[in-house]
Amino acid sequence: MPDGELLGGRIVETEAYLQNDEAMHAYRGKTARNAPLFGLPGTSYVYFIYGVHYCFNVVTEAEGIASAVLIRGLDQIDDANGPGKLCRRLKIDLSHNGLDLSSTDSPIWIARGTELEAPIITTTRIGITRAADKPWRFYILGSSGVSRRDRIAERGNDCVS
DNA sequence: CCGAGGATCATCT
DNA sequence: GATGATCCTCGGT
Question: Please, which of A53, A124, A143, A159 could form a disulfide with A12 given CB 3.0 to 4.6 Å?
Fold first, then answer.
């Protein structure tokens, strides 16, 4: 692994973006920006949004098929709830686009997870303007890395039950 | 607590 | 010239 500070956490919130999905950046074909989406599974796809934030994705399907999972939150680390904050916290920017996340020689990599202690909740995706009805957002119930809105909702459920 | 609005720019039309 | 897979601040209740 590269020298320097090592920082990481557990992925606790994601959204899937698929081929033939209107919300997918490559829905209208390949461009310079979205080219990494067509790469090998395990490739990173980082883009800049709203003139302010970076978002970090992992390519999931075979080469040539546009697909990605947006990493929306980590726990075991402070202030990494939400895709923009996560990138700010880990100092992820466009220089981390197109990396091989399966290699520990990469400045960013992803390790295999462990068994979960809490259920995975499935909801619709957040903040998109198209295909907003698709239930392709997933998060670990009760995790501190999940969007504030859902932590509050879940706390309310706990009170009821 | 909640909703509205602004920041700010790479990318595509 | 418009748009957006976000976040923060502000004002009303």
Answer: A143
**Alpha-carbon distance A84 to A9, whole Å?**
15
pLDDT tens sequence across A61-84: 999 999 999 999 999 999 999 999
Q: Which two tokens stand for residue A129?
A: 């303007």
Contacts 24+ apart (CB under 8 A), A115-118: A116/A140, A118/A142, A118/A143
Copy the structure tokens of residue A105. 């020689």
- Cα A17 to the chain's mean position, in Å? 10
Backbone angles phi, psi at A139, to 5 degrees: -145, 155
CB A121 within 8 A of CB A139: yes
The A 90-119 residues near strand C by Cβ under 7 Å are none
DSSP string, A108-150: S--------SSPEEEE--SS-SSSTT---EEEETT-TTS-HHH
Cβ of residue A149 lies below 7 Å from strand C: no
CB proximity A49–strand C (7 Å threshold): yes
DSSP calls for A47-68: EEETTTEEEEEE--S-TTS--E
Does the reported pTM lie above 0.90?
yes
